[in-house]
Structures are given as C-alpha cells and as structure tokens.
Amino acid sequence: MTLLSVNLNAVAQLRNRRDLPWPSVTGIARVALDAGASGITIHPRPDERHIRRTDVYDLSALLREEYPEAEFNIEGYPSDDFLELIEDVNPQQVTLVPDDPAQATSDHGWDFAGKGNFLTSVVQRLKRGDRRISLFCDPDARHEGVTAAKATGADRIELFTGPYGACYDDPMRAQAELTALAETAAAALSIGLEVNAGHDLTLENLPAFQLAVPGVAEASIGHGITADALLFGFEEATRRYIAVLAEK
Q: Which residue in 5, 29, 62, 84 is a FRET match for 68, CA 20 to 30 A apart?
C-alpha cells in the first residue's frame, strides 16, 4: 500500500491571505491524521508565503506529542537556513528539492550530473539512523539520475509527477508520462532506492498511476486534496485518497 502524506502548503497559503489564525495548519493536520493519513508534508520557503517557520515548530510539537507514529516530511532547497532548521526539528524524512526561492512551486527534479557533489555533502550531513533523505527526481529514460541519486547516499527519490498531472486532457501524453515514471521507479527499486511520488496527483489520475507504477512507498499530496476538501471536507477527502492509494 502506498502511504499518504498530506501536504499542508495550500492550507497555510489560504490562511496567509488574512491576518487571522484560520484555517489552522495544526488543526487541519489533526483532521488528516485522524482520518488515517500516515504523515504530514510541508515546504517552508524563505519568504514564508505559505508555511511559516513557526508552523514548522508547531507541527513538530503536534506530531511528537499527539501522533508519535506519524511521519513528518519537510521539503526544501538545502540552504544553510534550511539545513539548520532540519537539524533543529529533526523530521523523519527530508526531501531535497532544487527550487529557486522565486518559484511558485516545485517544477523539476535535480540536475544530478551538475549537483552530485553538492548533494552528496548535504545528504551526508543530514542522514541519520532515524531520518531518511529523499531527492526530487524527474523521470529519466536512461536512469542516469537514479544512479547518481543512489551515489549520494540518499534513501529515496521522489518522482516528480507534475508533467503527468498536467495531462488531464491528453490521454496519449498521460500514457507516455506514466511509462517514463514506471521505468524510472523500476530502475530506482532495482538498485535499492525506495520511491516516493508527488505533484498534481488527484483522485482522477491516481488509479492509473498506481496501476502503472507499482512499489511507490509514499505519495505527498497537497493541492489536489485541498481542492477536493472544498467539496467533501478535509476528513472525507483524506479518506478518499487513502482508499485510492490502497487499490491495486
């Protein structure tokens, strides 16, 4: 079964439209975890346009005190400030992404050829027995990125599924993207890397993804689940995503 980690960036971004404490990021985290989510994902950016630094500490305390079995996954570019935050909070998983601070959202994987030495040093700094490291990875027909990710010492890759998610009105292109994702996942698993996935996954496109890309350990989902929560409520939306991820 692929586990669900609920990304709360969109919830935080909605809250930040007003100088008010709602929707509560920790409150929605409780709803998602009580509904069966296995973990919480956040991506604190330097400008705090959604997740704030205070949210990181509040969520860390919530998970530690009330949901000790849940996983805390923190995404981000490995700047000095980010690395210090990780070492202070000590989440169970760190997902390193190659984002420029000005990007609206993650939109590509690492250039492993150009950044391999840098990533190796970061992975070795962050890796601990109680913490896994995942690297954001584009589908890669030649599997060079997967091999390079393994060489850094990382534990997992996170497949960037954004191009697949963008194919909602183009079935032929969607199938091509699924094939690339499946081949990349298989290559990663064959050399001992576990596989996560995330970006623009929805209730509509997850079934085909699950069928085409077996062996995914965890899916990080934020925008889709938040959009569906407007229709179903966050509890029911979380349950629906868990149900889809449990299907074979």
A: 84
The H or E element that residue 77 is part of is none
**pLDDT tens-digit readout, 190-203:** 999 999 999 999 99
Q: Is 75 considered catalytic here? A: yes
Q: At 224, which amino acid appears? A: G
CA distance 190 to 183: 11
User: To which residue do tokens 């962050």 refer?
Assistant: 126
State the pLDDT at residue 107: 64
| CB count in 10 Å sphere of residue 33 | 20
Of these residues, 50, 71, 158, 199, which one is catalytic?
Answer: 199
User: Residue 103 — pLDDT band, cuts 50, 70, 90?
Assistant: low
Q: How far is CA 194 from CA 137, 141, 190, 203, in A?
A: 12, 18, 9, 23
Which residue in the list 71, 75, 158, 194 is annotated as catalytic? Answer: 75
Catalytic residue among 43, 50, 71, 218: 43
Backbone angles phi, psi at 30, to 5 degrees: -60, -45
Report which residue type is found at 79. Answer: S
Alpha-carbon distance of 163 to 196, in angstroms, equals 16
